[in-house]
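Section 5: illustrative case.
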Protein backbone atom coordinates (compact mmCIF):
# COMPACT_ATOMS: atom_id res chain seq x y z
CA UNK A 1 0.00 0.00 0.00
CA UNK A 2 1.01 3.54 -0.68
CA UNK A 3 1.29 6.22 2.05
CA UNK A 4 3.03 9.33 0.67
CA UNK A 5 5.48 10.94 3.06
CA UNK A 6 4.35 14.51 2.24
CA UNK A 7 0.86 13.96 3.68
CA UNK A 8 -0.55 14.00 7.21
CA UNK A 9 -2.99 11.27 8.26
CA UNK A 10 -5.81 10.70 10.74
CA UNK A 11 -6.58 7.55 12.68
CA UNK A 12 -9.92 7.49 10.80
CA UNK A 13 -7.98 7.00 7.51
CA UNK A 14 -8.12 10.47 5.97
CA UNK A 15 -5.15 12.32 4.52
CA UNK A 16 -4.49 16.03 4.12
CA UNK A 17 -1.99 18.00 2.07
CA UNK A 18 -1.66 21.65 3.03
CA UNK A 19 -0.23 24.23 0.65
CA UNK A 20 -0.34 27.82 1.88
CA UNK A 21 -3.65 27.84 3.78
CA UNK A 22 -5.47 25.30 1.56
CA UNK A 23 -5.90 21.73 2.74
CA UNK A 24 -6.75 19.02 0.22
CA UNK A 25 -8.46 16.03 1.86
CA UNK A 26 -9.20 12.46 0.80
CA UNK A 27 -9.17 8.91 2.08
CA UNK A 28 -6.09 6.73 2.24
CA UNK A 29 -5.19 3.81 0.02
CA UNK A 30 -5.93 1.56 3.00
CA UNK A 31 -9.39 3.09 3.46
CA UNK A 32 -10.40 2.76 -0.18
CA UNK A 33 -9.31 -0.90 -0.20
CA UNK A 34 -11.36 -1.59 2.93
CA UNK A 35 -14.44 0.17 1.53
CA UNK A 36 -14.37 -1.57 -1.84
CA UNK A 37 -15.69 0.08 -4.98
CA UNK A 38 -16.77 3.67 -4.30
CA UNK A 39 -20.05 4.38 -6.10
CA UNK A 40 -21.16 7.81 -4.81
CA UNK A 41 -19.94 10.71 -2.68
CA UNK A 42 -22.19 13.24 -0.99
CA UNK A 43 -20.26 16.50 -0.73
CA UNK A 44 -20.74 19.42 1.66
CA UNK A 45 -21.76 22.77 0.19
CA UNK A 46 -18.95 25.17 -0.68
CA UNK A 47 -18.76 27.76 2.09
CA UNK A 48 -19.64 25.33 4.87
CA UNK A 49 -17.54 25.64 8.02
CA UNK A 50 -16.38 22.28 9.39
CA UNK A 51 -14.61 21.50 12.64
CA UNK A 52 -11.76 19.08 13.12
CA UNK A 53 -13.18 15.56 13.49
CA UNK A 54 -16.57 16.48 12.01
CA UNK A 55 -18.03 14.62 9.04
CA UNK A 56 -17.58 16.69 5.89
CA UNK A 57 -18.69 14.18 3.23
CA UNK A 58 -20.32 10.77 2.93
CA UNK A 59 -18.75 7.99 0.89
CA UNK A 60 -20.99 5.23 -0.46
CA UNK A 61 -19.26 2.04 -1.51
CA UNK A 62 -20.49 -1.38 -2.58
CA UNK A 63 -19.73 -2.78 0.90
CA UNK A 64 -20.77 0.11 3.16
CA UNK A 65 -21.31 3.82 3.73
CA UNK A 66 -18.63 5.83 5.55
CA UNK A 67 -18.03 9.41 6.62
CA UNK A 68 -15.09 11.56 5.58
CA UNK A 69 -13.97 13.29 8.76
CA UNK A 70 -12.19 16.62 8.48
CA UNK A 71 -8.59 16.41 9.76
CA UNK A 72 -8.67 20.15 10.59
CA UNK A 73 -11.17 22.97 11.01
CA UNK A 74 -11.88 25.19 8.04
CA UNK A 75 -14.17 26.43 5.32
CA UNK A 76 -15.02 24.21 2.34
CA UNK A 77 -13.71 26.07 -0.71
CA UNK A 78 -13.94 23.33 -3.34
CA UNK A 79 -15.22 19.79 -3.88
CA UNK A 80 -13.93 17.36 -6.51
CA UNK A 81 -16.61 17.66 -9.19
CA UNK A 82 -15.01 14.82 -11.20
CA UNK A 83 -16.08 12.35 -8.51
CA UNK A 84 -19.76 13.10 -9.16
CA UNK A 85 -19.54 11.24 -12.47
CA UNK A 86 -16.43 9.12 -11.81
CA UNK A 87 -16.39 8.10 -8.11
CA UNK A 88 -14.13 5.16 -9.01
CA UNK A 89 -11.23 7.65 -9.13
CA UNK A 90 -11.12 7.31 -5.33
CA UNK A 91 -10.18 3.64 -5.76
CA UNK A 92 -7.82 4.19 -8.70
CA UNK A 93 -5.95 7.27 -7.43
CA UNK A 94 -6.83 8.11 -3.79
CA UNK A 95 -3.99 10.64 -3.42
CA UNK A 96 -4.36 12.30 -6.82
CA UNK A 97 -7.53 12.54 -8.87
CA UNK A 98 -9.47 10.91 -6.03
CA UNK A 99 -9.15 13.85 -3.61
CA UNK A 100 -12.51 14.90 -2.20
CA UNK A 101 -12.64 18.29 -0.45
CA UNK A 102 -10.48 21.41 -0.21
CA UNK A 103 -10.63 23.57 2.91
CA UNK A 104 -9.28 26.96 3.85
CA UNK A 105 -7.50 25.88 7.04
CA UNK A 106 -8.55 27.96 10.07
CA UNK A 107 -5.87 26.84 12.54
CA UNK A 108 -2.64 25.37 11.13
CA UNK A 109 -1.58 24.24 14.62
CA UNK A 110 -4.22 21.47 14.37
CA UNK A 111 -1.93 19.75 11.85
CA UNK A 112 0.49 18.96 14.68
CA UNK A 113 -1.90 16.36 16.12
CA UNK A 114 -2.03 14.36 12.87
CA UNK A 115 -0.01 11.25 12.02
CA UNK A 116 3.09 11.05 9.85
CA UNK A 117 3.23 8.42 7.10
CA UNK A 118 5.41 6.25 9.38
CA UNK A 119 2.93 6.49 12.25
CA UNK A 120 -0.01 5.78 9.94
CA UNK A 121 1.73 2.69 8.53
CA UNK A 122 2.11 1.39 12.10
CA UNK A 123 -1.57 2.11 12.79
CA UNK A 124 -2.71 -0.04 9.86
CA UNK A 125 -0.06 -2.71 10.37
CA UNK A 126 1.95 -2.01 7.21
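Designed sequence:
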Amino acid sequence: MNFPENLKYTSQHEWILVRNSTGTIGITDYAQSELGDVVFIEFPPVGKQVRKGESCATIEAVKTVADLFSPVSGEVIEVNEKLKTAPELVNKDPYGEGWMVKLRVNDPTELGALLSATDYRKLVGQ
